[in-house]
Each structure stands twice: as C-alpha cells, then as structure tokens.
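Predict structure. Chain length: 692.
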Amino acid sequence: MTIQSGVSLLQRVVELQDLQKFRELNWTGSFGDYLDIVARNPKVTRNAFQRIYDMIMSYGYEEFVDAKKKLIRYHFFSDPSFDIDDAIFGLEIPLMRLVNFFKAAAQGYGTEKRVLLLHGPVGSSKSTIVRRLKRGLEHYSKTEGGALYTFDWYMGVIDSENWNWRQVPESEWEKCPMHEEPLRLIPAESRERFIEELTDGYNGEYAIRIVGDLCPSCRFNFRDLMLRYQGDWSQVIRHVRVRRLVFSEQDRIGIGTFQPKDEKNQDSTELTGDINYRKIAIYGSDSDPRAFNFDGEFNIANRGIIEFIEMLKLDVAFLYDLLGASQEHKIKSKKFAQTDIDEVIIGHTNSPEYRRLENNEFMEALKDRTVRIDIPYITRLRDEIKIYERDFNKKRVKVHIAPHTLEVAAMWAVLTRLDEPKKPNLTLLQKLKLYNGRTLPGFTEDNIKELRKESPGEGMQGISPRYIQDKISNALVNYQTDGYINPFMVLNELENGLKNHALITSEEDRKRYRDLLSVVKEEYTEIVKNEVQRAISADEEAIKRLCANYIDNIKAYTQRERVRNKFTGQFEEPDERLMRSIEEKIDIPESRKDDFRREIMNYIGALAIEGKTFDYKTNERLHKALELKLFEDQKDSIKLTSLVSRVIDKDTQEKIDVVKARLIRDFGYNEQSATDVLNYVASIFARGDMKH
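Prediction complete.
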C-alpha cells in the first residue's frame, strides 16, 4: 500500500470536485431570465405529482408476462444509481398501482386530491418505498430533466435604473419559506393572457398552469412593494431573484417527514408553522407574517413530498388538516388565511391501525379521500433471495456464507406467507416453486392464475424479512469462529427465535412455522444430494462416452438395425438394458420409451440439416439422465460412505478430493463447507437413504 501525503490527498479532493455542476445547481437569475427558461423548457413548471411521475418514468421500464398476466417492472425502484440499499424487489403489482396513481394525478384525473396510503404488514417495504421516492426526488432535482426553480426577495431600496441585483449581499436576500413557483408572482388578472402567449404553439404533455396564490410571507412582501411603487409590477419584480431549487430532506427543502409522538402532546404547529414570539415585539402583532415561522412540515415540503409515518396514529385534529391539504391543496396556519400548497401526501400504516380506521365512523371523510395500496410480503422466492443477497454478500461480510444458506432462509420466509393450496395433489412447497417460475407435471400457467385468485390476501401475513435478517446476523456472529455459516446454522437460529417472537401470538402459527422448517430442511437435503451427485458425475469425457453409446443404441433401435460391438467387432442387438437404465432416471415409462427415443433422433436429424452437431447439454432432460446414470455407476467406486469412517484409502481420498474441488469450483463452496456437505451426504448414503 502506497502512503500518500496530505498535500496530494488534498489535491485529489480538489480534482474530484465538479465545479460546473455546482454552478448549475446554484444558478441565479432575474425573473426575465427565468421566463426565458420556461419558454425553452416548460417542464420546469410541473406540479409535484407530474414531477414524481416523470422521475419514475425517466429510469425506464420493462414489460414481462407472469402466469399469462402482463406486468411492468419500473427500473426506478431498483436502480443502483442512488440508494442501492433500498432497492425493492418482487412487488411489481403494488408498484404498478402506485405508478398508476401518480400517472392519473399527473394528468389531473382526480387522484391528485387524495392521500396515498401504503398498507401492509410490518417489514413489507412500505417505508422503503416512500424513502426511495424521497431520495429519488433529491437526485432528480439535481438533473437537467428534474430542474425546478424558486425565488428570493430583496426588500431594500433600489436607488437607480442601473442597479445590479448581483451586488446585493447574500444575507439581505429573503427566501420564500415555501419554495414557491416563480410564476405565482404574475398578478392574477394577467395570468390567463400570459399563459395564452406563453403556450402559443406549445404541444407538451402537461398544460402550463399557474395555480394558487403566494404564501402569506411573500404576499406581504409583494403587497408592500406594490404600494411602494404605486402598483408598478415591473419595478416590484426587480426586487426578485430566481434561483435553482434542489430538494433535500436534511435541509428541509421540498421533502418533509412527520412522525406522531405521544397522542396527548401532538401539536398541529409541527405541520403548519408557529408564531415567532421574539419577533412579535419587533412587528407588534402575532398576525404579521414577519413574526411567524412558516416552517411546518407542510410548508417546507411544498413542491415535493411529505411522508406521514404510521399515519393513522395521528390525532383527529391532524387528520382534519390532511383533509384540506389533500382535497383543496390548502393548509391553515394559525392567524392566517388558507395557504396554497403543491405536494404529494403519502402515509403508511399496518393492518391493526387500518382496521381501527375502518371501524371508526368519524373517519368517513378521511377514508373517502384516501387511496389505499396494499404492500404485501414477497411471495416469489428469487425476489426474496435478492433482499438477503443485497445485505449479506462478499463485499459486506467477511465470513463465508455456504451456498443455499440465504436460499433456504428465504424459502422458509416465503412458505410462511403462502396459503395452503386447495388442490389435493399440490403441496405448499410445490406452490412456492410454481410461483417462482418452475414447471411441474400436470400444472399450467392457468393453474398458477387460479392459485393466485383463490388467495387474494396472500403475503399480508407471515414472517417479516427483518426477522430473517436478524437471524442471519445472529448466525454470522455466533459461528464466526468457524469461519463460515451454512443453512443448518441459520435454520437453527430461525427455529430458536420462534420461542420469543413478539409478533407470533398463536401457538398454532408457531407450530406451523416449525413444521415448515422441517419442509425446508428436507428440500435442502435434496438440493445438496443433487449437487454432490453432479460433482461426482462431472467427468465430461465419461458423460460424452456414455451419451455416444446411448445415441448409437437408440439410432439402431429406431432404425431397426444392429450395433457393432467396438470390443469384439460383432454386430449385436441394441442394448435395451443400457437404454432403459438411462431413461428410467428421468421417469420415462416403458410405454413412452419409443416416443422419447424418436424425439431424440428427430432432434439430432434437424440439427444435421442445419449443419450443426448434437450436444447433450442442449437437451436438459437427457443431460440430467446421463448425469444420474454416471453417478450410479461411479458412486460405489468412490465409496462416499467411507467418509463417515475414520479410515479412507489413498485412492478413495484422491477421488473425494476431486469431488470436493468440483464443489468449490462449480458451486461456490469453500474447503470447510464442501467437506461438511460431503460428510452430510455421506451420512445419508450410510443410512441407505439416497433417492434418485
């Protein structure tokens, strides 16, 4: 490692700075300069809903079909360019509903007058979705496509026509406390004519509109200057500086968050601002906007988004504020008239709180103004695995995580969320596999659609991803001296934690979850048996020889010919015993053997016409059958069962080392985990429990 001097490191920081970007984000100009920007790019005047919808769409999307249902995956929710830790997986349907809400609101179809409420069990990504929207807005407002602007006031004296607003010290500029759209400075009586001239020939997606009046603070300044200049608006606007607006939750610009506290101590001024008692002595009245701090969450979130954490825990008085803010887009600050706002109101809550809302007849007005979107747990295994791979990977975790460790934890989590299938010939594990895209004999995509329809509330209960993450963390801590963790270590942690799980109140549920752990252990056993089997039979040359022998025999069989024995040179009948020993490995019945053999020969013939040669790897079923046959032929020579004894001869040890090396190379094990897997599978051999 080369140690650099402090001077060189300092120079490197300077080089990494993007001064051009800094200047763009801190652009300032006159009101006339801003009108030039609007004429070139009318999108800078979008409202909050339009901006969020465009932000989501700017990341693109892809369409795909799941069980004959056309779905859309919006890349915004998993894009790694910002907050990769908050990437959302497997919630395509709820996220489609969310985007449709914003699309309708952007077009002005009515949902812009509603409170958006995300509802679901704990740990189902409700707050993650909102957090991603907030972080996305911060990021989007720094881009050219997401640019927006606000304005500041200079209330001093302008003493000449050549006055330069750029010479005014920064401390003398008074910012609009609600980051308002500069076009609101145009007098109401002139707006219609102004918009007509501005939009002449404009054919954009959104109509340009000037909605609402100035906030009380800006209204006071505007009126004061109009009196000073006897109604000459052109002189008033010289006191205005327009600047680029960049959203920031930390700086409380365009993004607000409200979290209810003790119900007895909730104060509405946290939402709509409060009197500045120190300034009352200066200005003489508590209704003077200069003596009021317009810094409530509704105020500072104007032009952006406000999040209500556990929204239904709000006091009733707060909920009344929500009614006006959503339906009328107005808020009422103490001692002032209603103030126009432009922001997205989004809250989230869990099922018990929502049931309380449903049973409260005094909340009818709020329910009527709320759009609820259910956010369930993930029910697709591969998406659940992604959550844990994001948190527990080689970059973050020094301890080796054996293959399938995260998979079995995710499998158990998903199983707890699924409803028992009503079809008598379908197990819960098979249902999980169908949901995960696997094909099973006797089941079609129509069956999967039926399964989803018969369980509309699936995913709204079960084990939270947080519980799984906690137990994986426990395993990493408890077994770090071993240098690695394996599935059994994590499954033990999951089972031990059930005893004191605060959210499991029913012993029946606790027993069901334990039983599902046994199902997962059995499935894991089948997975590792298959892997060891593939590692043993991974001799490619041997498989090629076996495949060539099989092809020679089925060719002779289908063409009613004889096969030449390469050792004796004699022509013999096709080896039926060999052919059936391979076909039985993939459950080809005696009655279907002719069809299967012809199918293989037809496939080889079609390739020959195209000038291609047959490769057994392109036929998944035949490949599997050959591996199983080779495994059966080789397992006795390897004597895997001898692993459970203490004495292993040199020849066997060499063969076992080859298998272990394949497990490490091809399946991601390390030395310890590969040894443990071989020992585990060997113990199954020793019990005579090996299934094909």
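Summary: The longest strand covers residues 148-154.
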